[in-house]
Design brief:
It contains 34 helices and 40 strands. It has about 1000 residues and is an alpha+beta fold.
Length: about 1000
């Protein structure tokens, strides 16, 4: 994916190539960038297509060099009318129609021919060919050419290094008319008009600058670009209107113009009046005199904004295409791995065969089904000769059909199988499917065979048939009715008991639904049961067993019957929808009549007990639970079946159960009502119950049962216990708190004060503080007109002068001097609001903190002043890389004031020195893993994490580089942790020169002494 990470890596590769102009191989680049060779090769391909990198072969190796080429597509857009493009073999790839018309030919006759056919009289050894070969290597050039036609004009041909869409180097020849100087008397008026028009239509800006950086002359084009007149530009320092951050690159560009390398080119963004930010290309040239000294700089600029936009668009399109290619390649690789995993791990046996039935490849399951250990034992063998596959299979596959089959095979008869005697049976069943594989001509080139061992399924089917016969015999003797229904609710079969209970014969019921009998079905609550609530309908719909009690009419007996019905859905293996339902029912008419009589007698009793707000239960004399209402069931978090019949000691283990057991025995023996409060551990948590045990007497006066009524008093007991604990906890916190706490009445008079509060004011006893208004003391010690807060709490900080308090007799204190107090006053109001009923005052002695803060501010100001006026250039950064110090010496060195640098991060401090954001020595202190890119020499590491080194820098673009001594050290905070780093810079150029002179003098003296 093309993102900021890719741009960063390509920039890093290009930066390293610029530092090594002699060229690097892919292996060297991989070692310097910590990237693998494939990744470096990909980034070099991107840079080559952008025209930033060239390739040079040295033997069998390829060396990559930094260059600056322009894509042919960009040149074609602006110079399409007079353009020639040649490849690396100096053959013509493209020539404009306008140009060929001038020399009397067509583009088709020239394309593919050597370039020197365009220039008659020149051979491959001519200087022109040498210029073209240098342009292929990245050097620009120009020469004059006279059109080979009668009256042809003289033209200037510019050789521009370019790059093709494939990334191969090329040269673009841009042809323009060259003005020939004529004497005034020979000049023609038309020619003068042409020259005037050329000056007005000129698009290149020209600036001539003195060696010390001041403008000597500019043309009108540059005046339009800079927005200033010639008079405003002349005599001033030359600084193009580049955008923010472009100054470092421009200074590097200017420094590159030397007598040994007099020309250079740079692309940068300029802020042009009325046009905004635009891209321009600058060509700089150092003009030198005879002794090699620069006497003037000449700069030529022309707009390349549209070209850059096209380049960026082409680069984005190319990166997007590469991303799509990588994604598709990864998807294809993932698909291949997925197919391989599916093929090998498939639970089905899979084999690939040719159209003759010869086995080519098979997976592990295929070998396992056949009981073969080694693939080589079966590869290349005929499938039809070893398996009983139908004879028409191959002919149907050749027609493009998919063939499915099931074949039985025997271990003993078929030599293909080798499963030994552990198979259990001598006969197996194989189910298979063969699908043709189309070839390039559309005809099947082979087929894939899926094979599955279905022996178990066939044996299970046979066993199922036998089980059905046995099941039928069992159904005929059952007393319960059994009916089989399909997924549509229609009757499939019924046993004799079902015929008797329902009053319909099996032949009469078969194929019909319950609604077709037109007889009302009554639910157990007496209402008519709709069809969608029938048990078998609900079981088929929900897929779970359904039980219900219904009343149906028996036409044979002419009466209704109550049936207990259970409907169970049946499922086929692997299916989620039931295909059948089995309904089992029994006649419970007599049982229902008895239950109706019994329920009537219990209804009134249950209505009474269930309506009580307390837990109601009934115990026998031994303590067994005979009944408990619904509230008791919820209390115990159990069902009624789990409670009824259990002893009380089992339901409440430990002391509560034993106490219940003793109380029940006492009530049963004495007949006296007994009350007690018990603490119980229930599944829902700890609860308290107030229980009353009441004897229930029989007709003879003896106690037959014991009835209990229990009321939940947990809230009351917990409230009492919480109140007691809170009181103790508040008293402990109040007295032992290290913060002074006082509770005051609405007037500010203290009611309670802890020991810390008494010690804070120098009071020996709490009684000495009562009657003293603390707010009045606060006001009379020159702390302003303090007011008590009416709403939320308010914080305060004040100075307390105990000498003044003692002098005015405001408080019986034993302390002297003064302290600083910080605290909070909080109103204590009633729950419903209104005026405060008092105030909570919390205070703390912060004298040490106040004194420490003052000393810290004084120390910080003193250190900042010292660092500001140090003679060495110095700056400091914090842990995040933001500049915190930029002293006066650093301002004088870089020309950047501290106001513009303080607070900036992202290696902003490296721009004045290196022209780009890169790590410096100060970053190595904070991050020892940081790479310094060989910009320093004589690096020394001290035990205190200090680092010293020497480097060559040129903070000013117009001054030559000098040797600097650099030292970086960590900065620590009050806890001893690293809070940042500081770097000092000192010019030692003259010192090193003096040392070299002294060293040569000593060497000369030593040599002279040896001679004498």
């Amino acid at each position: 994916m093309v993102n900021n990470f890719t741009d960063s890596n390509t920039s890093e590769v290009l930066y390293i190539l610029k530092e090594h102009p002699e060229g690097l191989s892919i292996t060297d680049l991989a070692a310097l960038t910590s990237l693998n060779r494939n990744t470096v090769s990909k980034y070099l391909g991107i840079l080559q297509r952008q025209g930033s990198v060239d390739i040079r072969r040295v033997g069998a190796a390829r060396i990559y060099l930094p260059t600056r080429r322009i894509p042919v597509a960009a040149i074609r857009r602006f110079c399409s009318s007079n353009l020639i493009v040649i490849d690396h073999n100096l053959e013509i790839l493209e020539v404009s129609g306008t140009l060929t018309a001038l020399i009397g030919t067509t583009p088709e006759t020239l394309i593919g021919k050597p370039i020197y056919v365009m220039f008659p009289g020149r051979d491959p050894s001519d200087e022109l060919i040498s210029l073209l070969r240098r342009a292929l290597r990245g050097e620009e050039g120009t020469f004059l050419w006279h059109l080979p036609v009668a009256g042809g004009a003289t033209c200037r041909i510019s050789l521009i290094p370019a790059v093709l869409e494939s990334g191969r180097p090329a040269v673009s020849l841009v042809i323009e008319k060259f003005p020939v100087e004529k004497s005034p008397e020979e000049a023609h008026p038309l020619e003068a008009l042409r020259e005037e028009a050329l000056r007005e239509d000129q698009t290149e800006g020209i600036v001539r600058v003195s060696p010390d950086g001041y403008v000597r002359w500019t043309n009108e084009v540059y005046c339009r670009i800079s927005g200033k007149t010639r008079e405003e530009n002349a005599g001033r320092p030359f600084r193009p209107p580049y955008t923010a951050g472009g100054g470092a690159a421009w200074r590097e560009f200017v420094r590159s113009l030397t007598p040994n390398s007099p020309t250079a080119t740079i692309d940068c963004e300029l802020v042009v009046p009325a046009e905004g930010v635009r891209w321009y290309r600058w060509k700089g040239r150092a003009l030198c005199n005879a002794d090699g000294r620069v006497f003037e700089y000449q700069f030529l600029c022309f707009a390349i904004h549209e070209c850059r936009m096209i380049e960026d668009s082409l680069r984005r399109d190319q990166l997007r295409l590469e991303e799509q290619l990588n994604k598709r390649t990864a998807a294809l690789r993932e698909s291949e791995e997925r197919f391989r995993a599916i093929f090998e791990e498939s639970p089905l046996g899979i084999a690939f065969c040719d159209m003759n039935g010869t086995l080519v490849r098979m997976n592990r399951m295929f070998l396992g089904i056949l009981g073969i250990q080694n693939r080589k034992d079966i590869e290349g063998r005929s499938l039809s000769a070893n398996l009983d596959i139908p004879s028409e299979t191959l002919s149907r596959l050749q027609k493009g059909e998919v063939v499915r089959f099931t074949v039985p095979s025997s271990w003993k008869q078929n030599p293909c199988f080798d499963r030994g005697t552990s198979g259990g049976t001598e006969r197996i069943y194989l189910e298979g499917a063969a699908s043709p594989i189309p070839g390039e001509d559309g005809a099947p080139s082979g087929f894939v065979l899926h094979l599955c061992d279905v022996t178990g399924r066939e044996e299970a089917a046979a066993a199922t048939r036998e089980a059905r016969l046995r099941t039928r015999d069992l159904l005929d003797i059952l007393t319960e009715g059994v009916v089989y229904l399909g997924a549509d609710g229609r009757v499939i079969d019924a046993n004799p008991a079902a015929e008797r209970i329902l009053g319909h014969a099996s032949s009469e019921m078969r194929g019909r639904t319950c609604s077709e009998f037109r007889e009302r079905v009554i639910d157990k609550d007496g209402s008519e049961c709709p069809e969608d609530r029938f048990p078998h309908i609900r079981a088929l719909t929900a897929g779970i067993p359904e039980r219900s009690i219904l009343n149906v009419f028996n036409p044979r007996e002419k009466r209704r019957r109550w049936l207990d019905i259970l409907a169970v859905p049946r499922f086929r293996p692997g299916e989620e929808e039931p295909f059948q339902a089995v309904v089992v029912f029994s006649d419970i008419t007599g049982q229902r009549e008895r239950e109706k009589m019994h329920s009537e007698t219990e209804r009134r009793y249950r209505t009474l007990t269930e309506s009580l707000p307390d837990v109601t239960f009934l115990l026998d004399q031994e303590g067994h639970v005979l009944y408990v209402n619904s509230l008791g069931v919820r209390m115990l978090h159990r069902t009624s079946e789990e409670i009824i019949g259990r002893e009380v000691s089992d339901l409440f283990p430990g002391d509560p159960g034993a106490e219940y057991r003793r109380n029940v025995a006492s009530v049963a023996a004495t007949g006296v009502i007994k009350d007690n409060i018990s603490r119980l551990q229930l599944p829902g948590g700890e609860v308290w119950y107030d229980t009353r045990l009441i004897p229930v007497r029989a007709e003879d006066g003896t106690c037959r049962y014991v009835m209990g009524i229990a009321r939940d008093v947990t809230a009351r007991m917990r409230a009492e216990e919480t109140s007691r604990k809170n009181a103790e906890r508040f008293r402990s916190v109040f007295e032992e708190s290290p913060i002074g706490i006082a509770i005051c009445d609405p007037a500010g008079l203290p009611l309670h004060a802890n020991r810390a509060c008494l010690e804070l004011f120098g009071i020996a006893r709490a009684g000495d503080l009562r009657g003293t208004n603390l707010l009045q003391i606060y006001r009379e010690t020159e702390n302003g007109d303090a007011q008590l807060p009416d709403g939320a709490g308010a914080s305060f900080e004040c100075r307390v002068d105990f000498d003044l308090i003692r002098k005015r007799d405001l408080l019986p204190t034993a302390r002297t001097g003064s302290i600083h107090i910080s605290g909070v006053i909080s109103p204590l109001g009633p729950p419903e609001g209104g005026s405060p009923e008092g105030y909570l005052l919390q205070m703390l002695d912060v004298t040490d903190r106040v004194l420490a803060e003052g000393a810290l501010r004084e120390s910080h100001d003193m250190l900042a002043g010292i660092a500001r006026h140090l003679p060495d250039a110095m700056f400091a950064i914090d842990r995040k890389g933001a500049v915190t110090i930029w002293n006066l010496a650093m301002e004088a060195l870089t020309g950047i004031p501290a106001e513009e640098m303080l607070g900036k991060g992202g290696h902003e401090y490296a721009l004045p020195f290196y022209g780009e954001r890169i790590p410096m020595l100060v970053d190595k202190v904070l991050n020892p893993e940081e790479t310094l890119r060989n910009r320093y020499r004589s690096v020394t590491y001290a035990e205190e994490n200090d680092i010293t080194a020497e480097t060559v820098l040129s903070p000013n673009s117009f001054n030559p580089p000098r040797l600097w001594w650099v030292k970086a050290a960590p900065l620590y905070d009050g806890q001893g942790k690293i809070a940042g780093a500081i770097e000092s810079i000192r010019d030692i150029t003259e010192q090193r020169r003096g040392e070299e002179i002294l060293k040569r003098e000593r060497s000369f003296t030593s040599t002279l002494s040896g001679v004498l």
